[in-house]
Amino acid sequence: MMGDLGDGIGTVIEGGLLGRAVEKGAGEAHGHSAAGPVVCANCQTVFSGNFCPECGQKAHIHRSLAAIGHDILHGVLHLDGKLWETLPLLTFKPGHLTRRYIAGERARFVSPMSMFLFTVFAMFAVFQMVGISAPTDFTEGFMDGATSSSSVVRTELQKEITDLQKERDGLPKGDPRRTEIDNELAGLSKVLEAQPPGAVEIDTRGLNFTGTGIEFLDKGIIKKWQQNPSLMLYKLQSNGYKFSWLLIPLSLPFLWLMFAWRRQYKAYDHAIFITYSLSFMSLLFIVMSILSTASGGSDWVVLLFIIAAPLHLYKQLRHAYGLSRFSAFWRFCVLLFCMQIVLTLFLLILGVLGAF
User: Fold this and answer.
1) CB half-sphere exposure, 275, CA atoms < 13 A
2) pTM surpassing 0.85?
3) pLDDT digits (tens, 9 = 90+) for 169-192
């Protein structure tokens, strides 16, 4: 449990720092300001104000541990006025937020991509903390005709771990890829520990599945899913947040088609709409996962999802694009159908990535 908590906290920090990397500093509260003209310690430019006009360095240079702690919290959690301006609108008036950001109010709000990165990583972190994860153990009979035994599974897992360890050892110290490999090794070790010991053979001769006729799928992806579903489900989960950004380009064509004859709306506008919408859904799943841990919380989780998710999408559609109720409703219905296609494509891509 403590390991999951530590992994979850690390994932939140990772998402916050990634979000911070794409977030501009405009519109934030800046603390100290220079009393008069100062000389920039970085480029020697003489200036007045909070930031150097040439290189952007702050006029006030701190040298205290308290300031370092403030920088960490500020960088990870975005504790500035922009977050508190953005969250209420994202939750209750998503259409207004989307329209205002597209219209040019960029310094006032957290950017869509920064919000998306932070909320997605936070969502998977909360999943880890509350114990929501892919199953790592499959009992006999998971697939008709397959005999459950762990020898083949354990061999594949151990080979995967060994290959990753070799790759990590060949990387220089400080390489960010080493941290990513360490996280993946920790997850694979959990899957390996969950496998029951014993001699195993997986016999697929009795399966009714005859294949797709495509060698790439039959011998590559499908065979790996049949032989080692635990490992593949773990990879599906671990790749889920790393490649969650794929939901944006996958959704974009469908939304563009629904407004193809309205030339005032550009692809950029649709991308902002999608990114803010996905950010809210991540926040919603965070609340739902926390509620699910409470006694009798499952009923509230279902009710919250049934009401909040469609209502939020409808309101964002109507107010972001300035639509009538009828126009927003039929697009909402079409969008619900398109979402099933997008999620299917996303899972297929994750399946391919996990197989290779």
Assistant:
1) 23
2) no
3) 888 877 777 777 787 777 767 666
